[in-house]
Predict the 3D structure of the following.
Amino acid sequence: MLLIRAIVRPEKSTIVLKALFEAGFPAVTKMAVFGRGKQRGLKVGNITYDADKDFVITTIIEAARTDEKGAFGDGKIFVTPITETYTISTGAKEA
């Protein structure tokens, strides 16, 4: 099984969902995301962020818990390896 996450422009989300549904892939989860790409100064390049994984996970857990012990329904964190990435504007596969 593969988890495919796509971040698209908000005005394209309905079109993408419709295309997936028509192609026989009706099971999707849609959520709003906030952030920015490379055009705003965030450079990814050859930088690896794996060393920060545990810190980021701990930060999310501490911020998302409803109290010190947490509660059922507080959420989940999924860490999945990325085997391929594609830039939508160019269609280019990135290394």
